[in-house]
Write a structure and sequence with these properties.
GO terms for molecular function: 4 iron, 4 sulfur cluster binding; metal ion binding; molybdopterin cofactor binding; oxidoreductase activity. This is Molybdopterin-dependent oxidoreductase. It contains 24 helices and 30 strands. With 712 residues, the chain is an alpha/beta fold. It folds into four domains: 60 residues, Phosphorylase Kinase, domain 1; 274 residues, Rossmann fold (3-Layer(aba) Sandwich), CATH 3.40.50.740; 192 residues, Dimethylsulfoxide Reductase, domain 2, CATH 3.40.228; 125 residues, Barwin-like endoglucanases, CATH 2.40.40.20. Helix 2 crosses helix 21, helix 9 runs antiparallel to helix 12 and helix 9 crosses helix 13. The model has no long low-confidence stretch (mean pLDDT 97). Bound molecules: iron/sulfur cluster.
Length: 712
């Protein structure tokens, strides 16, 4: 039996695993006792990874050879790799020649490894000459990115996992960490057991498993987060609970914010947020007066048309109270996907460039062009996720390349996504699994390796970079994602007849070495981190050349990466939900994750035991709504929004507030059927959700849609 150290591919906690294998078969998995993210623990998903990689599951679910669909509505047929990549290069070159580089769009994934991301970013921005490259990280962390940059000056979570044990107050807002980040939550439970005086405040419209064990749960109305934080600052100012010395020494812009929150009186805030004034005061006191307060937050803040404002208003509280840059304190975004952070590090999004450089900065563009050996990189921001599919639906983007993600289930407003995939002239889907809804729209399917078969690196929520290693050979003819990008780039360069950056990468390590050199002198400088060093232990960035260790905590000296070294308060007004509930659509729909499932279930859905927690998709309603609609438990109801409808069994849950509904995001296909407004078939809860997005982060509003519910 062979043992291989690697990393769990599911979530941003980034747990270390030891893969057990015999020959070409993965036979077991256990937690890596030496990995600083999990010290040997794994959750139900991580501990069953090997069962998703059996020979039987592989045969049933994996894409094992390249497939080509000669015309739509026909069955895809096998094609050899060379012909597949040549055809892809021919089609993309033709589209670029006929319509320009912006007629191509690439939609990637926070589950790709950093090396995969790097090659595709260089291919799209350095060779093709468009910034139309975005990823499902746009649905995950882009509001956190924008929030950090607007206030602290850089996309860098300032805290670390050790702070969980050092905090005196945990302020968990917009995160059900007990289900979405289970191993991190185990650390919280340990910390509370060791220090019972530690307080935990949870802000969430639902009484989640996280909220259920909190000292105080603020069950706010959906979308009122910014007003809550403004109300807390109003109270802090009123009570003298801010830190004027910290504000004066290390920040700018406080006066505008002080003026803004003047109107956020306790009575107004309590009434609008739907909470008791006494709870508002107590939460504020715990946040401001605890020696160290750590905020943990995730999609409840990020997936919102006010996502950036929610992030900045929360960070404002930390700056106003000096709760940052010291042990156990700070704003700490929890990354949803395993490598949403690594993708940002290489600049793998429509508005970013390598190593946290900005597209809008001419000096940064020139630096990246010099690194890649090309005359320039395009200055115009590319289309972000929602914009990219809208542009394809409108006929502007004609060739789409989709890698390691399933937009035909996961993007909001599925009717538009379906139109995009049908209207695009050429769709390439690079995937490990043949079972995703998006595969059905591909003209060309390229089989990719996945967990246990591929090597590279990922970065977790606390900026810690870990090695991912291959334990077994690739399934069938699957190839590594970075290699597919490289081989396509070399063919495309020959057809475009233009100066091409080098894609001469023999190994993922050669990609890594180029990436780490691109970070020299940047906030995330990792020039000191080789594969050899990462093989000894995962490390946090920054880790510049000559460093002996990474930095656990940022901004301890009170200096921030802004032009004047000061953090910036953001005075952004509270805005109510853009799609409020009304007489026609009286319910607020909230979507989210279950404990034992992951994304669109392409991996977790292969295991019967992971359905023990939730066997089927349901809509959860408050018991009073069940009674008012005269629904028996399990009664079939139709959920209808302005964009589409789905059919689901309804169940009562006191954890969901009256006039609200909760549906898990995982089910699609035949398990959760629905219809678009024009009657065409759709699947999954995103038949209902809206394409509205935050104007700063472009992250869509997946946490709220106004719906009506009727017995089916
Ligand atoms: Fe994997 Fe996340 Fe579970 Fe850790 S907490 S084992 S990274 S799914």
């Amino acid at each position: 039996m062979k043992e291989t150290q690697s990393t769990c591919p599911y979530c941003g906690v980034g747990c270390g695993v030891i893969i057990e294998s015999q020959g070409a078969q993965i036979t077991g998995v256990r937690g890596d006792p030496h990995h600083p993210a999990n010290f040997g623990r794994l959750c139900t998903k991580g501990s069953t990874l090997h069962r998703t990689a059996t020979a039987e599951v592989t045969l049933q679910t994996r894409l094992l050879s390249p497939l080509q669909r000669k015309s739509r509505n026909t069955k895809p047929q096998p094609i050899d790799w060379d012909s597949a990549l040549t055809q892809a290069a021919d089609k993309f070159a033709q589209v670029i020649k006929d319509h320009g580089p912006d007629a191509a769009g690439f939609y990637l994934s926070g589950q790709l490894l950093t090396e995969d991301y790097y090659v595709f970013n260089k291919l799209v921005k350095g060779l093709i000459g468009t910034n139309n490259l975005d990823t499902n990280s746009r649905l995950c962390m882009s509001s956190a990115v924008a929030g950090y940059k607007q206030t602290l000056g850089a996309d860098a979570p300032p805290a670390c996992y050790e702070d969980l044990a050092l905090a005196d107050c945990l302020f968990i807002t917009g995160s059900n960490a007990a289900w979405a980040h289970p191993i991190l939550f185990r650390r919280i439970e340990d910390a509370r057991a060791a220090r019972p005086q530690m307080k935990m405040v949870v802000v969430d419209p639902r009484r989640t498993d996280t909220a259920a064990v909190a000292d105080l749960h603020l069950q706010i109305q959906p979308g009122t987060d910014v007003l809550l934080y403004h109300g807390m600052l109003h109270l802090m100012l009123d009570q003298g609970w801010t830190d004027p010395a910290y504000i004066a020494a290390h920040t700018s812009g406080f006066e505008a914010l002080r003026e803004l929150v003047r109107e956020a009186t306790p009575i107004t805030v309590a009434e609008t947020c739907g909470i008791a004034q006494a709870d508002l005061v107590e939460a504020t006191r715990l946040f401001a007066r605890s020696p160290a307060t750590l905020s943990l937050y995730c999609q409840g803040l990020n997936q919102s048309a006010s996502g950036t404002a929610k992030n900045t208003a929360l960070i404002d509280l930390h700056l106003a109270t000096g709760q940052i840059g010291k042990p156990g304190a700070g704003p700490f975004s929890l990354t949803g996907q395993p490598n949403a952070m690594g993708g940002r590090e290489v600049g793998g999004m429509a508005n970013l460039l390598s190593a946290h450089r900005d597209l809008g900065n001419a000096v940064h563009r020139a630096e990246v062009a010099a690194l890649w050996g090309v005359p320039d990189v395009p200055a115009t921001p590319g289309k972000t996720a929602i914009e990219m599919f809208q542009a394809a639906a409108d006929g502007q983007i004609k060739a789409l390349w989709i890698a390691c993600t399933n937009p035909a289930q996961s993007l909001p407003d599925q009717a538009t996504v379906r139109r995009a995939l049908e209207r695009a002239e050429f769709v390439v889907v690079q995937e490990a699994f043949a079972t995703t809804a998006t595969c059905a729209f591909a003209d060309l399917l390229l089989p990719a390796t996945t967990w246990g078969e591929k090597a590279g690196t990922v970065t977790n929520s606390e900026r810690r970079i870990s090695r991912v290693r291959a334990a077994v050979p690739a399934a069938g003819q699957a190839r590594d994602d970075w290699r597919i990008g490289r081989d396509f780039a070399q063919r495309l360069a020959a057809r475009l007849h233009r100066e091409s950056p080098s894609f001469d990468y023999p190994t993922p390590e050669s990609v890594w070495n180029e990436h780490r050199e691109s970070t020299r002198g940047r906030d995330l400088d990792i020039t000191g981190l080789s594969y050899d060093q990462l093989d000894q232990a995962p490390q946090q960035w920054p880790f510049p050349e000559g460093a002996r260790s990474g930095r656990a905590r940022l901004y301890e000296d009170g200096r921030f990466p802004t032009p004047d070294g000061r953090a910036r308060f953001a005075a952004v007004p509270y805005r109510a939900l853009a799609e409020p509930c009304d007489a026609h659509y009286p319910f607020a729909l909230n979507t989210g994750r279950l404990r034992d499932q992951w994304h669109g279930m392409s991996r977790t859905g292969t295991l019967g035991r992971l359905f023990g927690h939730a066997a089927e998709p349901t809509v959860q309603l408050h018991p009073t709504d069940m009674a008012r609609l005269q629904l028996a438990p399990g009664a079939l109801v139709q959920l209808q929004s302005r964009r589409g409808s789905v059919l689901l069994p309804a169940h009562a849950s006191p954890d969901v507030a009256p006039a609200q509904a909760f549906v898990a995001m995982h089910w699609g296909g035949e398990y959760l059927s629905g219809r678009a407004a024009d009657g065409s078939p759709l699947a999954g809860v995103n038949a209902l959700t809206q394409p509205l997005y935050c104007p700063d982060s472009r992250q869509p509003e997946l946490k709220h849609a106004a719906i009506r519910i009727e017995p089916a």
